[in-house]
Design a protein that fits this description.
Elongation Factor Tu (Ef-tu), domain 3, 18 strands, alpha/beta, Rossmann fold, seven-stranded mixed sheet, seven-stranded antiparallel sheet, globular, 9 helices
């Protein structure tokens, strides 16, 4: 059991949570993720990336958006409650080395998994430019943490309510066109955002790493649910990733697979309680 120690609501549907997970906190590296199961005997297993960890205190931080039945249940949990099962750290860590200048792009809650990567890149001696994007000001997360790390921080919003009114691809392209172009780009966020970040850097031949968050069940590569096509080869996000060369990912195939269970997700999130005569969320 993993006791929840802190919980903060960052926006209407985005939460930050700290819980006990001593072994994971000690072993995790930048880029890795965990699988959370709220019930010990039955329940959906959901992959969540690690936003931060304290190996001394034995705690792990996650930032998540309540979009489905399980994440809404997680959002309803309080300090003192316990999460039944947490598996991790999973996935291959980010390859960290000193390359020079790196531009890191985070979209929405993708900023959270980007945070430990920026930490590691800075610690390796790189100059790091961070671009944060969201639809509105209210959806910007972890700005203070990124500002403390980045050599330069650019914030953009779709509606112009904070920072520049732009998509993240605009300052990314400017960075690639500038007098000191990056030697590496890292993009984490919605799949469509990562796809267009990769297309933005492609003409400039800037190596681009993306972190994929696909349908995942076991986290060991056995179920095959997380398979993607990368460079015309089948890869499994949970064991071969989650990070891949963004220029080689078959984005159309991945986006199509992400929508495979939309009907079932809606049914799980909203169920008709005939005995009560109301429609409500699965509890």
């Amino acid at each position: 059991m993993h006791r929840i120690l802190e919980k903060r609501q960052l926006s209407e549907e985005v939460f930050r949570m700290k819980f006990e997970a001593r072994n994971i906190a000690r072993e995790r590296k930048a880029g890795q993720f965990i699988i959370v199961q709220l019930d010990s005997d039955f329940g959906e297993r959901i992959p969540l990336t690690i936003a931060d960890a304290d190996p001394v205190a034995g705690t792990v931080d996650i930032v998540f958006q309540a979009v489905g039945a399980t994440t809404h249940r997680l959002a309803d949990m309080a300090v003192g409650d316990s999460i039944a099962n947490v598996l991790g750290p999973l996935g291959r860590p980010t390859h960290i080395e000193k390359v020079g200048t790196v531009v890191c792009v985070g979209g929405g809650i993708g900023v959270a998994p980007l945070h430990p990567i920026v930490q590691a890149l800075k610690a390796a001696g790189n100059t790091v430019k961070v671009i944060i994007g969201a639809r509105t000001k209210e959806l910007i997360v972890m700005e203070d943490e990124m500002r403390a790390l980045a050599d330069e921080l650019v914030i953009v919003t779709d509606d112009g309510s904070y920072g520049r009114k732009a998509l993240v691809t605009e300052p990314l392209k400017e960075a690639c066109e500038g007098p000191n172009p990056p030697q590496l780009a890292v993009a984490i966020g919605p799949p469509i955002m990562m796809k267009f970040c990769a297309e933005t850097t492609r003409p400039f031949k800037v190596p681009t790493v993306v972190s994929l968050n696909t349908i995942m069940i076991d986290g060991t590569g056995m179920c095959g649910g997380c398979r993607v096509t990368v460079g015309n080869e089948t890869k499994f996000v949970c064991v071969d990733g989650p990070e891949f060369d963004g220029h080689l990912v078959d984005w159309d195939n991945m986006l199509s697979r992400l929508g495979a269970y939309k009907t079932q997700e809606k049914e799980a999130h909203h169920v008709c309680h005939l005995d009560l005569g109301i429609a409500g969320e699965v509890k």
